[in-house]
Design a protein that fits this description.
Length: 437
């Protein structure tokens, strides 16, 4: 993420505010006013949902303050790490959750009724559960019971955008595998004037790491084994890096080592690039004919499967999670539970879709599948979405991993050199935090 360094130094191996629960300032009352710090963009849609539905539904006044991404992390870290009560509900990007999960209460005890888990997509429940189901154990979560400690409010997962006009020109079907992406991309580069078959977001650090992660999982398998040993230094992981830095680079424009998300959007929108991973926020821009020359040709499909190696489909998960601050009094926690339960109700989520929100309930998708052209791809993607490594240290080693990927893209490291250096670097950070004891 943009503030990976901040997250790493802000909380080290994560705060453990205990197992949550009552603060001792118990009350049978429900507070009538709450404060939430949320992120600009996704948080603005949530604020509209609160203003247009939740406030009336609950009778609670909810003050939603919006902050840029990095500022929100700083605010959240400052409040929770000092056991403060300035904000009642924490709005957390999912890579932050391992750092802050010990500072938010198990959520069910404060809800007026049960979570609608039969309608919540499983991956969005797992990512807000701590310790995370299926993830390796970490020292700071030792002894904690596995409980749902948050609730997803934005169902983001990475999609794959491709230019169907170019695909039609070269006689290719929508890509199912990364091999399909490369094969079609080669033909497009050769046969379509002015078009590159692919475009890589290769900027050093987090941008290239975020761009590569789904492909790494698709071919290389999960980044870590059950003991936090780095998996991608093996044959499959090294092949994923080779495919990315050699094959996909060969059909991308020159200069990809400096490309960030704006270059990807511009390339897809102008038709100078045929395909790339894209988040839902980018989808809306790419389909806007006033912003995108290729709006009529851009289509969305789930992130492709690996064509070799692990052969997985593993779209990168990017959810925003709400959690109830453990350090506020019980009347505020009860109010926070009412607000969260209202915001994720079927009625609220239908309203959320009308406002342009990204849902996470089965029934919301099923009843609103035509609301956005990319909803079918998003719904399918959410079923197999892959969370980033569930450790507070991801922000520390993720950016370094991205620096090594950038060096491999530039030709300064071979794929095997890159993955071996990554293994040494990542496992060194984890060893210093006692992950192997």
């Amino acid at each position: 993420m943009a503030l990976s360094g901040l997250a790493g130094c802000g909380g080290g191996d994560g705060g453990s505010g205990g197992d949550g629960g009552s603060t001792g300032s118990g009350s049978n009352q429900t507070a009538q006013e709450l404060s939430i710090a949320a992120v600009e963009g996704s948080g603005r849609l949530f604020k509209r949902l609160v203003d247009e539905y939740v406030a009336e539904d609950t009778g609670i006044t909810v003050n939603v303050e919006l902050f840029p991404y990095a500022n929100l992390f700083e605010k959240t870290n400052s409040v929770l790490s000092t056991q403060g009560d300035a904000y009642d509900i924490a709005f957390m990007d999912d890579p932050w959750f391992p750092q802050f999960a010990g500072h938010v209460d198990p959520i069910q005890q404060w809800l007026p009724e049960d979570l609608p888990t039969d309608q919540l997509i499983d991956t969005t429940v797992d990512i807000a559960t701590w310790p995370t189901p299926g993830a390796p154990n970490i020292p700071s979560a030792e002894g904690m019971d596995q409980q749902i400690r948050g609730q997803v409010i934005v169902g983001n997962t990475q999609l794959f955008a491709y230019n169907s006009g170019f695909y039609d020109q070269v006689g290719a079907d929508a890509p199912e595998t990364w091999g399909d992406v490369y094969d079609a991309g080669q033909k497009i580069s050769q046969q379509v004037d002015g078009a590159n078959g692919y475009i890589i977001r290769g900027k050093r650090g987090n941008p290239v790491m975020a761009n590569f992660f789904a492909l790494g999982n698709a071919i290389g398998g999960t980044m870590f084994d059950d003991d936090w040993r780095y998996n991608w230094a093996g044959e499959n992981g090294t092949e994923a890096v080779r495919f990315y830095t050699e094959d996909l680079k060969s059909i991308s424009p020159d200069g990809v080592t400096s490309f960030d998300s704006d270059a990807i959007l511009n390339g897809l929108a102008s038709g100078s690039a045929a395909q790339a991973p894209a988040w839902p926020s980018a989808a809306s821009l790419l389909l806007d004919s006033e912003e995108s020359d290729e709006a009529d040709n851009i289509k969305f499909t789930p992130i492709p499967k690996g064509h070799k190696g692990a052969k997985r489909r593993a779209p990168t998960q990017g959810n925003w999670i709400m959690g109830i601050n453990s350090y506020i009094d019980d009347s505020k926690k009860k109010a926070a539970g009412e607000v969260i339960r209202s915001a994720i109700s079927k009625e609220a989520q239908n309203k959320y879709v009308e406002l342009g929100g990204v849902p996470f309930r089965h029934d919301t998708f099923e009843e609103n599948m035509d609301a956005q052209p990319w909803f079918p791809a998003l719904y399918e993607s959410l079923q197999t979405a892959q969370y980033r490594p569930r450790t507070p240290l991801y922000s520390e080693f993720g950016i370094g991993h991205g620096e090594l990927l950038n060096a491999a893209l530039a030709g300064d490291l071979s794929p095997s050199e890159m993955t071996q250096k990554a293994k040494e670097q990542v496992e060194g950070i984890l060893a210093n935090a006692n992950y192997y004891e």
